[in-house]
Amino acid sequence: MASLSAAPRSRMPVALYALTAGAFGIGTTEFVIMGLLTQVATDLGVSIAAAGLLISGYALGVFFGAPLLTAATGRMPRKTVLVALMVVFTLGNLACALAPNYAVLMAARVVTSLAHGTFFGVGAVVATGLVGEDRKASAISIMFTGLTVATLLGVPAGAWLGLQAGWRATFWAVAAIGVVATLVIATLVPADRGERAAPAFRDEFRVLARPQVLLGLLMTVLGFGGMFTVYTFIQPLLTEVTGFAEAAVSPILLVFGVGMIAGNLLGGRLADRRLEAALLSSLALLALVMAGMAFALHLPWAMVLATGLLGAAAFATVPPLQLWVLRQAGDAPSLASSLNIGAFNLGNAFGAWLGGAVISHGGGLASLPWVAALVPASALAVALWSLALARRAPQPLPVHGSGCA
Fold first, then answer.
1. Where do the TM regions start and end (predicted)?
2. Maximal CA-CA distance, the chain
3. How far apart are CA 311 and CA 116, in angstroms?
4. What is the pLDDT of residue 337?
5. What are phi and psi for residue 9, nearest 5 degrees?
């Protein structure tokens, strides 16, 4: 079968959109629980705080489990891994829908989270192998569009369905998405091309000894940590500081979602042209947008604009950050890619903690944008350091791609 990287430049391979479908389902199941916490807590007889741990458990499962699962499946054909992960995802959501108690629901969420990090990690490698060298970041951004669309449409739809038919109905629906995504990936993603030499489990983890990989992961944690320092508390910022009514929050978050999609696609195009410039400019823009939000807090129209720009700036960093880590990984791209997905989730947890610490220590909601701006600014400093080191050292091995045909 001919390589899909030979497809005309005017269009992307259809297999990329199969990966997008899987990303949509995974993105939906990660965040939809936020809109179901009250129902879950009431039905299972636990506190809201305990129900909130279902979010933390998922994030920790991504961070710790995904690299281990990615390394363990390193010698398997990548298409086989992707299909198997979607099966795990589907079964995990079925288990959530049928969970008789809180403990089973938590376990099902953790199992499902394993599919998350490894799918995005391996999927990013497959995506880059489907296109030419000059479109690898755009390919990553198209796959991640599934995650952004899930935030924009899938999560609100899931929350609405849970309100109308109960929280279990939402997980049944997400499981159905998993079935469709599994079939689409099995049909459209090309099989691996011949045998693929994969490093041993222990050898693959040696990627963590590469300073440039570690610096790339740190950039990701700090970049998204800053975003979640603000976004975790966006509802009280909008209502208590800016003065919006509760009913206005959802439409404003739609603006954030549109910004995410636009920023993700733009970041991919810019990274394909000049990866280093895209990396630096996207992190700098994210810091500037957060600082600007501090001035927009008391102007409703400006706050709506700032919220959209926050989504755009944050997700413009995704393709350059992911591609940068891939390029530093040498012969362990799948593991490094999965580690970077875990770093996004660690940034989520770090940002939420930092924002909460600022509020609880008397900083107040209005100080969050200023504090948040310092976090991607520090990521920018790490990026400058990393680029300086890269110019002194030999060039890293190129991304080998998926080996698909």
1. 14-38, 44-69, 81-104, 110-132, 139-163, 169-191, 212-234, 246-266, 278-297, 303-326, 338-359, 371-390
2. 62
3. 21
4. 72
5. -65, -20
d(CA 405, CA 129): 9
CA distance 200 to 206: 10
341: which 2 tokens?
């997905």
Using CA atoms, how far apart are residues 369 and 231, in angstroms rounded to an integer? 10
**Contact at 8 Å (CB) between 300 and 242?**
yes
- Write down the architecture of domain 12-392 according to CATH: Up-down Bundle (1.20)
Cα-Cα-Cα-Cα dihedral sign, residues 92, 97, 98, 99: positive
pLDDT given at position 265: 84
Position 174 confidence tier, pLDDT thresholds 50, 70, 90: very high
- Please name which of 286, 282, 360, 381 lies closest in space to residue 322, comparing C-alpha atoms: 282
Strands (E), 34-190: none
Amino acid in position 47: S
79: buried, middle or exposed (CB in 10 Å: 19+, 13-18, 0-12)? buried
| Model pLDDT for residues 47-94, shown as the tens digit of each residue | 766 776 787 788 788 878 777 777 777 778 888 888 999 999 999 999
Domain ranges of the chain: 12-392
